[in-house]
TrEMBL record, chains A, B:
This is FAD-binding PCMH-type domain-containing protein. It comes from the Bacteria. It comes from Deinococcus irradiatisoli. Residues 1-116 form the FAD-binding PCMH-type domain. Transmembrane segments: none annotated. The lineage of its organism: Bacteria, Thermotogati, Deinococcota, Deinococci, Deinococcales.
Length: 218, 218
């Protein structure tokens, strides 16, 4: 089991970069949630960070409290830590989130967990488009169905899913078989969230030269 | 007037780095708020970003959508932009927030604004300490008084300030005269927030060597 350390009191989780997303869901006590929905995607936690998250309707990088990564140079870079309020400054953590592999692989990741006494996930036929005014914490489109997932106080959860309809989803989905050649941002694929379409075998976005220069300095 | 562009529809503001914090408050239409309380501090907006914000009880860097800064090399670095959901990846914006001058000065900053139909600021004698369970958006200690400020729905504002007591504060404070030799994190100074004490003439925290290496690459 690759999960390293759960602190329910601090509402933080330290996990190895190769941890599967659903293994994190399985390891959490009732009432605590990670910053991703209960689905499995290629590359586990490290892959998720490299791609900048999945399905979030909030600022994903703010939920990553720290990351230790092995830079392409081989150097082990420790960034951030188990501190919720980003006290330190000089923060390299956010550089890793959305780096699409330019900064190497995450070795360990410290996630902020958030509490919820209630949680629901619903799905109905549909697609992401303009005017989707939903406040659900996670919103995504998978194989022609639109999914919303939210957790929080019971009343918040009802409000976030109100007027959406659809049917309850209770089993986590494993989307890995949809991406035999890897997952990347692109059109025409089986998944879409508020940031990107996600397609099988799609290459990462072209990195700005300056970002590559920074990556080479690590 | 150094403010460059306000978009009330997008809830974003682009301002030059030398813009005074209270000039931003003065320029905003009723019902929109920036990610700092109505106080003036040394260095204007650029200084605020370099220090990682002031008084926030939330993730400050997530409210900075983009920054153009002049690196010590002289290079003008454009990071992020006017996009709320951090779509792009390869994000150098967060590197600037809390960089304490290592990455140079902000030339222009794009702020996320947030709506509030109500806003209140209260103060009473007291100091920041353990067990301060307040959810107010901004919390700080100034010259022996504890300040809370919140905006949002009227009911949220009342809830955030409940049981605190104190008296209403309506005039913005100019704290610049308290820091004739510059402001830095340190004990014994006239200001304190949830991250640091702020003292006159205090030096920035020592930067990790790797952060300096990254800064030198820009």
């Amino acid at each position: 089991m690759p999960i390293l350390e759960l602190s329910a009191a601090d509402q933080t989780l330290i996990a190895s970069g190769d941890t599967a997303l659903l293994d994190i869901y399985a390891a959490l006590p009732p009432g605590l949630y990670p910053p991703f929905p209960p689905v499995e995607l290629p590359g586990g936690l490290s892959g998720l960070l490299q791609r900048g998250g999945f399905a979030q309707n909030f600022f994903f990088a703010g939920e990553i409290l720290g990351v230790t990564f092995q830079a392409p140079s081989g150097r082990l870079v420790r960034a951030g830590g188990r501190v919720v309020k980003n006290v330190q400054g000089y923060d390299l953590t956010r550089l890793f989130v959305g780096s699409f592999g330019q900064l190497g692989e995450a070795v360990t990741v410290t996630l902020r967990l958030r509490p919820g006494v209630a949680a629901r996930q619903v799905a109905r036929p549909g697609s992401l488009g303009a005017g989707l005014g939903h406040r659900a914490r996670f919103i995504w489109e998978a194989q022609g169905k639109l999914h919303l997932m939210h957790f929080g106080h019971a009343r918040e959860v009802e409000a976030a899913l109100a007027k959406f309809g659809g049917e309850e989803v209770s089993a986590p989905a494993d989307y890995r078989p949809l991406f035999p050649d890897g997952i990347g941002p692109g059109e025409g694929g089986p998944l879409r969230d508020l940031r990107f379409g996600w397609a099988n075998g799609a290459a990462p976005p072209v990195a700005p030269a300056l970002f590559s220069k920074v990556a080479a300095a690590l």
